[in-house]
Write a structure and sequence with these properties.
heterodimer; A: six-stranded antiparallel beta sheet; elongated; B: mainly alpha; 11 helices
């Protein structure tokens, strides 16, 4: 070898990449591959979905929903959580048709008398036990969540799916088509879905917590967990804006954070058990009754302030979260639309109280996913 | 994925309709692309940039034709070079030192542990044009043939062969001059041990800044 080759040889010796680095880069690549695959599919399709039809976008719609009852400050904070890049998949001039979704009018969405006389704390403890104590999915590659977004007034709606990777980036897909197969292991995107990359932008993806942080929470110490949640809540929601949420208390913040973490995050069964236990310690939670959602599912509605958590205590499953637009609205038996009710803060009858936003976002399914969606056909 | 028996050429041909084939190419070539990046930008930047190369390849894949040699690597190295140049452009300028858009010389020097060697490769290659240098390094570091290196850089094969030959001769002459005029560690030796490698670069630039055609 010449001296030049010797020099080049010694200057060119570099180590290879380790398994973690190799896997991380692969995950980032897979996200883009999935987007490319779904864009191809969308291009082949009519391209009838305009990404802009879904304001807020987001991981699964839950975040946007939380905003309905949250403060303007919280809205700004949550908006910063996720940047959604809409894909220009639609063809110019193509009609922006909305696929039919089964109308929800035939289902009476709302509350009926509670099927039990157990207290809220007892029901939450029951849910905690049912949630289990397994360690969960600390090493899963993606968290898959699917939800139904329905305009309760028009009956029209869409379905959204998201696959969020460990680093908070991921793929979201929306469609007006009927509910896809409810499988978490092999999520399957259907024709007509519009895919978009979800960019975490360096902000922990799950309501202020990263995947790893969720698994670092103290699940065996309710008081410590409550303390961690409260400090995280300060970061997530920021200082409360006056007026909009005058009735909020620290306990309501805690209740809301528990609801958020139970929905659409990779929280382990052990953490879910602990979250229900924390909720059971919150004073003032009442049993509102049995709630029927727009899919016809029933669950037990537990209420604190303007927030209602719908759960199945027997299985520990979290079904829905409802945010009322005003403290007065919590006295109505309807869930949406307008009603007349006494505002507990003022003691006066208020007309035209919007109970919640006209849209509903139901969590249909969630779970760990090994990979990104494969396209049928 | 690693067990996929299709050739790189078949995978490249299928990419426009099947973006997921990029995953197979990744499993096959990620280590080589990582080393390419690592040699030029250091291991930390290489880890950051690895996925960018394959993602960029994904959006460029509709235009790809398989190389005659059957390897996708020349194409991937060409993309990696563009990713590197963008990366270096985004770096804050180092005080007074002209940025090199193809190479982090500090990262190179970090691998040349003998003090005498620090700055030497840069001094040896500094008379080469950017593309001649890259041609030489693709051959020496990535073991590409001149035809493959030509494909990576988008130049003709015949031109690549003669340019590679001239580049080697010129680099070798520069190295011999460097050793002759600065025996031992005196080339960077004007700097005390521990001083920055960039300082030694400016010394060698002064010494060997002129045209050194062989």
């Amino acid at each position: 070898m010449s001296p030049l080759d010797d020099l080049l040889d010694s200057a060119g010796r570099v180590p290879g990449i380790g398994p973690d680095g190799l896997r991380n880069a692969r995950t980032a690549l897979d996200t883009r591959i999935a987007v490319a695959v779904m864009q191809l599919n969308a291009t082949a399709d009519l391209g009838r979905k305009r990404a802009s039809r879904w304001p807020g976008g987001g991981l699964s719609g839950w975040r946007g929903k939380a905003l309905a009852g949250a403060t303007a400050v919280a809205a700004a904070a949550a908006a910063a959580l996720v940047t959604v890049i809409a894909t220009p998949a639609q063809h110019a001039g193509a009609p922006a048709a909305v696929s039919p979704v089964p109308p929800v009018a035939r289902i009476h969405v709302g509350f009926s008398a509670p099927a039990t006389d157990a207290t809220a704390a007892q029901l939450l403890d029951e849910a905690a036990t049912a949630a289990g104590s397994q360690q969960g999915w600390p090493d899963a590659r993606y968290w898959f969540a699917q939800s139904q977004n329905t305009n309760l007034l028009s009956g029209q709606g869409s379905y959204s799916s998201s696959w969020i990777a460990r680093d908070g980036n991921g793929v979201g897909a929306r469609a007006g088509a009927p509910i896809p197969e409810q499988a978490t292991s092999v999520p399957r995107a259907k024709d007509g879905e519009t895919a978009y990359p979800v960019i975490a932008d360096g902000v922990p993806a799950f309501y202020g917590f990263s995947w790893a942080q969720l698994y670092a929470l103290p699940v065996n110490d309710t008081a410590a967990l409550e303390s961690d949640l409260m400090s995280a809540g300060q970061i997530t929601f920021g200082p409360k804006a006056p007026g909009l949420s005058g009735s909020w208390t620290g306990q309501e913040d805690l209740f809301e954070l528990v609801m958020n973490l139970l929905s659409g995050t990779p929280a382990s069964p052990a953490l879910r058990e602990a979250l229900y236990k924390v909720a059971a310690t919150i004073p003032g939670v009442t049993v509102k009754g049995t709630y029927t959602d727009s899919l016809g599912r029933t669950g037990t509605a537990l209420r604190l302030g303007i927030m209602t958590m719908v759960i199945d205590p027997a299985t520990g499953q979290f079904l829905d979260g409802l945010w009322a637009a005003s403290p007065a609205a919590v006295n109505c038996s309807k869930v949406t639309g307008w009603c007349q009710a006494i505002n507990p803060a003022t003691g006066k009858i208020e007309k035209g109280v919007m109970l919640s936003g006209p849209s509903s976002t139901l969590l249909i399914t969630q779970g760990p996913a090994a990979g990104l969606p494969k396209i049928a056909g | 994925m690693t067990g996929d028996s299709r050739s790189d050429g078949e995978l490249l041909a299928g990419l426009p309709g099947q973006p997921e084939l990029m995953g197979v190419l990744y499993e096959r070539h990620a280590q080589a692309v990582f080393r390419y990046l690592g040699r030029r930008a250091g291991p930390a930047a290489a880890e950051d940039l690895l996925s960018e190369v394959f993602i960029a390849a994904l959006s460029a894949s509709s235009r790809v034709v398989a190389h005659d040699s059957g390897s996708a690597l020349p194409w991937l190295y060409g993309i990696a070079l563009n990713v590197l140049r963008r990366h270096f452009r985004q770096q804050p300028p180092a005080g007074g030192v002209t940025r090199d858009l193809g190479m982090d010389w500090d990262a190179v020097d970090d691998r040349l542990d003998a003090l005498a060697e620090r700055g030497r490769l840069r001094a040896t290659l500094q008379d080469l044009s950017d593309s001649d240098r890259e041609l030489l390094l693709l051959a020496a570091w990535e073991n590409l043939t001149s035809a493959e290196a030509a494909a990576a850089l988008g130049i003709g094969e015949v031109a690549a062969r003669s340019r590679l030959h001239r580049a080697r001769k010129r680099a070798l002459a520069a190295l011999q001059r460097l050793r002759g005029s600065a025996p031992g560690n005196s080339a960077p030796g004007n700097s005390a041990p521990g001083s920055s490698a960039r300082a030694s670069h400016s010394v060698t630039t002064t010494l060997y800044g002129g045209e050194k055609a062989s």
